[in-house]
Amino acid sequence: DKGTYPYYMLKEIDEQPNVMRKLASLYTQESGRPNVNQALINTMKQADRIYIVGAGTSYHAGLVGKKLFEKLTHVPTEVHVASEFAYENPLLSDNPFFIFLSQSGETADSREVLVNVNAHDYKSLTITNVENSTLFREATYTMLLHAGPEISVASTKAYTAQIGVEAILAKALGEAKQQVIAEEFDIRQQLGLVATGMQAIIDEKEMIEDLAKKYFVPTSKAFYIGRGIDQTVSLESALKLKEISYVQAEGFASGELKHGTIALIEDGTPVVGIITQKRTANLTRSNLQETMSRGAKTFTIVRNGLAQEGDTIIIPDVDEMITPLLSVVPAQLIAYYTSLNKGLDVDRPRNLAKSVTVE
Ligand code: M6R
């Protein structure tokens, strides 16, 4: 039931702070230690490489997961689009461990990969929102997202819940592998900060709707750019905009633009810079400048403390490893308000199904 909300998507965006609190209370202890199935951690400890498999938004959550696993556990991690992995038979390491990310647990392409993984007796974990779904039943281990039903075709709270669960799991595995960085990463406290931070962004809805009207409603194409973890969020931000507002949007590595794609920038093309990492903030700023001098209308989603100028959405300060949990929220709201102000059916965009059960 969407209650007083005009669309499920807005309700589901609003639910994200509570989902973060729920993950903290279910998967961590008062002491801050992760509360994760020990057998799962023991199995993962044997792995020499992690393979994350997903489609669409779940694939994008996997890209963030790679950064988390590599930082916190030092286990090399690959992320694969399910429909590609299924038929390309990528070369595997000696001891692979598979993580399937799927909100619905029913995506046919991911299931095809899991059938193969099981045929080889490899161990796997499904992270899903739906208990007893196909991917839930067929994997060795499972972790639930506890996000509550996600009805809107555009995935929002499942993405942030997937990243939350990946961060908890990476922390648990990193500790088991005695990585100092994992021991020092207080995931329980961070998820609390994320919940408060998400709420602060959500409270700025009206300002974000104004930006959506100014930049995105009048346009047919747009760019999100960033570096590193911000680049992965740029992909998810662009996907949100494409699927519900039909603006042709691209997420891009900001330094790669000038190797060709910058040719698409025209007078008035909106370009959003996502800037949450201290080390690369200035670089992304100068890439934004490059688009401005070719006529782009730019604004930024910036982590508090990093210099801001022009139209800016500030996101509260959290650990640099988990900034996607906050930087994606303005992009979700931008997509929502662009679709709404274009008079489109936000929850049921054309040509799309909530769960894709054919290959
Ligand atoms: O249920 P899943 O997470 O496996 O679904 C994967 C994609 O189909 C899904 O994320 C899709 O990209 C969403 N519509 C994105 O908002």
TrEMBL record:
Its EC number is 2.6.1.16. Keywords: Aminotransferase, Cytoplasm, Glutamine amidotransferase, Repeat, Transferase. The active site is at K354. It catalyses: D-fructose 6-phosphate + L-glutamine = D-glucosamine 6-phosphate + L-glutamate. Residues 40-179, 207-349 form the SIS domain. GO terms for cellular component: cytosol. It is found in: Cytoplasm. It is an enzyme of class 2 (transferase). GO terms for molecular function: carbohydrate derivative binding; glutamine-fructose-6-phosphate transaminase (isomerizing) activity. One of its GO terms (biological process) is fructose 6-phosphate metabolic process. Catalyzes the first step in hexosamine metabolism, converting fructose-6P into glucosamine-6P using glutamine as a nitrogen source. Homodimer. This is Glutamine--fructose-6-phosphate aminotransferase [isomerizing]. It comes from Lentilactobacillus kisonensis DSM 19906 = JCM 15041. The gene is glmS. The chain holds residues 247 to 605 of 605 of the full protein.
